[in-house]
Automatic annotation (TrEMBL):
GO molecular function: protein-containing complex binding
Topology relative to the membrane: Single-pass type II membrane protein
One GO CC annotation: plasma membrane
The protein's name in its UniProt record: Ancillary SecYEG translocon subunit
Record-annotated Ancillary SecYEG translocon subunit/Cell division coordinator CpoB TPR domain positions: 23-203
Species of origin: Rhizobium hidalgonense
High-level lineage: Bacteria, Pseudomonadati, Pseudomonadota, Alphaproteobacteria, Hyphomicrobiales
InterPro entries: SecYEG/CpoB_TPR (IPR018704), TPR-like_helical_dom_sf (IPR011990), YfgM (IPR026039)
Amino acid sequence: MAFNDDSFIREVNEELRSDQMKGVWRRFGRYIIVVAILIVVGTAGKVLYEYWDDNRSSGAGDQFLAAMKLADENKNDEALAALDKLEKEGHGAYPVLARMRAATVQAQKGDAAAAVAAFNEIGKDNGVPAAVRDAAKMRAGWLLIENGSYEQVSAAIEEMAVPGNAFRHSAREALGLASYKAGNMAQARQWFQSIVDDTDSPRNVSNRAHMMLDLITASGKAPAAQG
């Protein structure tokens, strides 16, 4: 399935209009999460790149790029070994970047529990820059949508779902999806409505929030918001 955000949303809306609500989430739920995760990864990637760019060191940089290449080639164990060495011996930004990338490789291997634990550890480390801690918390929160409870997602990221936080749009979307997955449609509606009501919400995030509000309305399990 091609992850073109606009065409994906149109396809879901066509399902709704054709009165096939029963299978919509079963068919599209995982894809909704994946599409949104791509946005989160992109945002976190920008934060990490800026951090890396401010702390470049040629030798460690070459090692980090080599480890990333191994991960991109799905040589996960080799990548983890290289990243572990860089975490222990690297300078500047690289130990932190190595930890973040190693957690991502754990997720890539299918070990969500290890990835969540690693991201949570980074998120609690006061020696790590705040922006990177927030990026780690977001990654943990999104992994927990599929691999944990709403309460776990909330514990990881709800503190970021507040006005002014750079990750608030992604945090609200993750909390809305976690609520929806847990069957709490009223709570899910509140989170998705908060995205729609925020004039600074990115268009793709707002579009997905509108789509989820349509799904919730079609389910009949939560009252529509009063305008």
